Amino acid sequence: MSSTLKPQDLKVVGSRPLRPDGVDKVTGRARYGADVNLSGQLIGKVLRSPHAHARILAIDTSLAEALPGVKAVVTRDDFPDMPEEYAAAGELTINYRDVTRNMMAREKVLYDGHPVAAVAAISESIARQALALIKVDYEVLPHVIDVREAMRPDAPLLHEAQYTEGISPRPDRPSNIAKRIEFSRGDVAAGFARAEVIVEREFNTQPVHQGYIEPQACLASTTEDGQAELWTSTQGHFVFRAQCAKLLAMEVSRIRVTPTEIGGGFGGKNNIYNEPLAIALSRKSHRPVKMVMSREEVFRATGPTSGGNVKVKLGATKDGRITAAQAELNFQAGAYPGSSVAPASMCAFTRYDLDNVRVIGHDVTCNRPKVAAYRAPGAPIAAFAVESVIDEMAAKLAIDPLEFRLKNAAREGTQTYYGPKFGTIGYVETLEAARAHPHYRAPLGPNQGRGVATGFWFNIGGETSASVNINEDGTVALMHGTLDVAGGSRAAMAMMVAEELGIAYEHVRPIVGDTAALGFNFITAGSRGTFAGGMACVAAARQAIERLRHRVAAIREVPVEAVAWQDGCARPAEGSAHQFAPMSLAEIGRVAGRTGGTIAGHAEINAQGAGPGFGTHIVDVEVDRETGAIRVLRYTVVQDVGRAIHPAYVEGQLQGGAVQGIGWALNEEYVYGADGVLQNPGFLDYRIPVASDLPFIDTVIVEVPNPRHPYGVRGCGEVPIIAPLAAIANAVAQAIGIRFFDLPLSPPRVLRAIAEAAGGPA
Amino acid sequence: MARHHVKATVNGDAVEFLCETGQTLLEALRDELHLTGTKEGCGTGDCGACSVMLDGRLVCSCLVLGVEAEGRSIETIEGMAVGEELHPLQQKFLEHAALQCGICTPGILIAARALLERNPDPTESEVRFWLAGNLCRCTGYHKIVEAVLAAAREMRAA
Amino acid sequence: MARISLSSSLAPFTGGETAIELDVANVRQLFAALGERYPELASQLETELAVAIDGEIYQDALLQAIADESEVFVFPKIAGG
C-alpha cells in the first residue's frame, strides 16, 4: 500500500486536534476495568503462595466454601491441564502448559504470589475471610532468584523436565537454563585479533515493573448456556479471548470481550491473569464476578521485565572502526521459560554496521513471576551494556561519542547479524540531529556530566481489522480493534480516515469494537497501534471510497471511471466527458438506504512492512556527592518516527518512554528477602519517577518515512525507553569519573562507589 | 458485619451511604455512591490517583475512612466542570495533550486545582513539587506541567 | 530457485547449514520444505519465524509469494510490549 501524498498536501495528518476520548478522561467519565459493574456481582479474590518455591501437597477449601456469603471457590481442579502448545501472544510465544500453571498453580508454586485458589463472595471483606480459611499444605523447597545463581549447575531446579534447548547434543541433566540462542556473523576471533583497542565489561540489571497506575481489573458474566461476557482492561481483547477460550476449553465464539479504557499497559497487559478465574467463578456461582488486583498483587504476581546479566566485548581500530562485537545475555524468565532474551540478542548491536558479531542469549527460569513484555522487551538491558561499552570505547579512542557511532552506523542496505538487510532507516539522521542540537554544546558545571546513547527496535505489524461506515448524515463511524492503549492512536486513525475521505476530522468518530464486532486484532504492542491500525483504517476507508464511487456512478448514471473522489465529494474525473452534479458524503448518505443500502468499507489484514525505529538521547546529570542522588538536569530525545500523524501524541510517547527508562536507571528494582519474598510491593518502596525528579523533556521528531505504510508511519512507542539507561550511566561517568556497571544507580550504590573510589571504607 | 450510615456532601449535593468500619472513603465513593471518577492505583496513599478535597483539604481518599466523611464536604473530579464549562485545567489538559491513558488525570486535576487555589502564580518547580504525590507513568509529566502553567496563566488573566 | 539464508540462531537445528537453494513459490511452501529437510526445525517454523523476501520483512504471511531468484532470509519473529 503506498501513498504519494507529500507533507504539504496533507490537510489533517500532521495537525494536533483534540483526542475524542479526552473529555471523558478529564471529567472522570471514562470507564476503566474497575469502573464496570453489573447488578448482583460478586467480588473475586485470589489466594496466593507465601513461598517462593514449594510443592503443593493438598488444598482444603471446605471451610471457605461453607462461609456464609461465599458463592464459589476454584482451584487447579477446576481447570483442565494443558499439553505443551505454543501460540503467539504478543511479545513472546507462550506455551499453554505454562500459561495455565501461571494462572493457577498445579504441582508446585514457583514464586511468592503464585495463585493457588480463588473465591467469589458477596463482599470484599467476606472474600478475604474466605481466603484465610483455605488450607494449603506446602512442602517448602529451596529457591533461587538471581539469574547468575539460577544458571549454576547446583541451583535449585524449578522444572525437573526442563533441558536446555538450542544445545546439540541435548544435555542429559535438567537445568534452569531453558534455552540457549546464538547469533553470529563473520569471524569474531579474527576481528578481535585485528583490533587495536578492546573493551570488555560485565553488567547487571535488576528486574523492573511496567508500573502502570491501573491494577488489572476484570468483570465476567456467564450464562447457563455457556456464553461468557468479559470486560477487562487489556492491550488485546482478541488475544485475551483466545487465551480464555483455550484455558477454559471453550469455543472462541462463546466469549465476548469488551475492552475497557486501559490505565497503562506497556506490555504488562498482553496476557491474562485473573480473567479465566473470573469466568470460572462466574460459571460456578451463576453470578457476575468482578476481580480487581491490589497494588501489592500487581507487584507480587504480574509479569515484570527480566533482571539481566550481560557481558560485552568490543574491539576497534584506532581510527574508530569496530572490528568485532561479542555479547552474552543472561535473562531471568521467571517461573516459566520465555523471556525476551531473543529479541534483546537480536537488537544488541544492530545499530552498527558490523562484519564480525557473536551474541549468545540464555533464557533462565527462577523463582519470581513469569516475566512479561515491557516496552521494547529486553532491548533496554542489552543497550545499557552495549551503549556503555561503546561510550567507553569512544573515550579510549578520544573520539566524540556521536562521531564514533556515526563512523559505524547502520544505514540503508546494512546487513544485520540476525536477519535481513535494512531498508530505509533513519539512524544516521537521529545522530546528526543530536549532534546539531544546542543541548550537545551547552556548558556544564562541577559534578555534572553529559551522556549519549542510542536505541533500536524492530516494530511490528500483525493482524488488524477495521470498518468504516458512512452514516446517513454523511458523518463517519470508524470501528477499530487496535486498542488505543494511551497513545492517542484512535485520534491518529480518525485523522488518517478523514484525510483519505477528504473530510474534517470532527466528522469521523472512532470507536473501539469488542470481539464480536470485528475480525481479529492483535495486541496493541510492538509499536503497532498507529502503524497497523492506521493501515487497516486506511484500507477500509479506500474500500468505502471505491463503493461510494460505484454508488454515485449508478445514481448519476455515468461510468465508474468518470467518478473521482476529492475533498469529501464525488466529482467528475478530470478530463472526463461525463459531467454530473457532485455529491457530498452527506448527500450520498441521505439516499444510500434507498439506492442499495449503507455504504461501508472494511479491512482485515495482517499488516506487513513495519519500519524499524531508531533514537538518540542526550542527558545531563548532576551527582550529589554527599547523598549519592543523581539529578537529571536536561534531557533530549531524538527519534525517527517515519511520520508523526499527531505530533503531540508522538512527543508524549517520546517523553513517557524516556522517563520510564530514567526510572529504570535511577531507582526502580525488585527487592527480595532471603526467603524469596518480595519486600517492596508498593509505590513507596518501588520508586518510579515523580514530577519533581525531572526537567522538561525536549523532543526532536525526525521523519524518514516508512515506504511500506500509506502515511510513512514507523510506530514510535517503544524506542524511547531503550537509550536512557546507558545515556545516564554515561553521563554519570562524565560527571564523577566513575562508571557504573550495575543498575539501578540508587543513592546508596552511588555513595558506596564514591567512597571506594576515594579509597575509603564504604 | 454491621454497616455505618454516613451523611455527607459530595460536589455540593447531600448524600448518604452505608459502609463497613474498615472501608475507605475511596471505596465508599466508588462502590456505594457509584462515583467512579476517583481511581485506586495503590490503596496505600502513594500514587495520588484517589485525590479528592475533604473540607477544602487535598487528601488521598484511600487513607480516609468512609465513616470519617460524616458531616463533611467532599469534592471529586465529577464536580470539577460546571455544567458544560470545563475548568480551565481540564481544557488545558486537552489542548496540551497532558493525558495519555488518563488514569492519573482525575487525581492530578484535583491536586492541580488545589495548588492554583492557593498559589495562582506557581513556578515550574512549585508545580512539580506540589504534584510529586501524583504518579503518572505515561507522560513523563512534561505536558502535565505545561498544561498546569498554561491554565494558571489563563486563570490569572480572567 | 530462491536463495534461502537461515539466521545463525537456527544452525543448531539444521546441523549447521544456513545457506541453501529451494524451489518454492510462497512462504508456506518454504516452511514445508524446510521442515522436511530439517525435522528439528519443524516445530518453530510457522509460529516463531519471520522471513525477509528481497529485503522486505514478512511475519505471519504464509501465502506471501517468493519469486524465482528471490533472496530470502529466515529469522526469529519479533513482537513487542
Helix and strand layout, with pairings?
The complex is a heterotrimer of chains A (762), B (158) and C (81).
Chain A: H1 22-27, E1 42-48, E2 54-60, H2 62-66, E3 70-74, E4 86-88, E5 93-95, H3 96-103, E6 108-109, E7 115-121, H4 124-132, E8 135-140, H5 147-151, E9 177-185, H6 188-194, E10 197-205, E11 217-222, E12 228-232, H7 237-248, E13 255-259, H8 275-285, E14 289-292, H9 295-301, E15 308-316, E16 322-334, H10 341-347, E17 357-365, H11 379-397, H12 401-407, H13 427-436, E18 448-457, E19 462-470, E20 476-480, H14 489-501, E21 508-512, H15 529-556, E22 563-566, E23 569-572, E24 583-584, H16 585-592, E25 600-607, E26 613-623, E27 630-640, H17 647-666, E28 697-702, H18 724-736, H19 747-757
Parallel strand pairs in A: 1-14, 12-13, 16-17, 20-21, 27-28
Antiparallel strand pairs in A: 1-7, 2-6, 2-8, 3-7, 4-5, 9-17, 10-15, 11-12, 11-14, 15-16, 18-26, 19-20, 19-25, 22-23, 23-24, 26-27
Helix pairs in contact in A: 7-8, 10-11, 11-18, 12-13, 14-15, 17-18
Chain B: E1 4-10, E2 13-19, H1 25-32, E3 51-54, E4 57-60, E5 73-75, H2 88-95, H3 105-118, H4 124-130, H5 142-157
Helix pairs in contact in B: 2-5
Chain C: E1 2-6, E2 19-22, H1 27-37, H2 42-48, E3 49-53, E4 56-58, E5 71-76
Parallel strand pairs in C: 1-5
Antiparallel strand pairs in C: 1-2, 3-4, 3-5
Helix pairs in contact in C: 1-2
Give a structural overview.
The complex is a heterotrimer of chains A (762), B (158) and C (81). With 762 residues, chain A is an alpha+beta fold. Chain A is 27% helix and 24% strand. Among the domains of chain A are: 7-30 and 461-607, Aldehyde Oxidoreductase, domain 4 (2-Layer Sandwich); 378-459 and 611-757, Aldehyde oxidase/xanthine dehydrogenase, molybdopterin binding domain (Aldehyde Oxidoreductase, domain 4, 2-Layer Sandwich), CATH 3.30.365. In chain A, the strands form seven sheets. A seven-stranded mixed beta sheet of chain A has the order 3-7-1-14-11-12-13, sandwiched between helices. In chain A, strand 16, helix 10 and strand 17 form a beta-alpha-beta unit. Chain B is of the alpha+beta class and 158 residues long. Chain B folds into two domains: 4-79, Ubiquitin-like (UB roll) (Roll), CATH 3.10.20.30; 88-157, [2Fe-2S]-binding domain (DNA polymerase, domain 1), CATH 1.10.150.120. Chain B has helices at 25-32, 88-95, 105-118, 124-130, 142-157, and strands at residues 4-10, 13-19, 51-54, 57-60, 73-75. In chain B, helix 2 packs across helix 5 (142-157). Chain C starts with a strand and ends in a 5-residue tail after the last strand. In chain C, strand 3 (49-53) and strand 4 form a beta hairpin. Chain C has 81 residues and is α+β, with helices and mostly antiparallel strands. Chain C has a five-stranded mixed beta sheet. Chain C has a single domain, classed as Roll (Ubiquitin-like (UB roll)). Chain C contains two helices and five strands, in the order E-E-H-H-E-E-E. At the A-B interface, helix 1 and helix 17 of A face helix 2, helix 3, helix 4 and helix 5 of B.
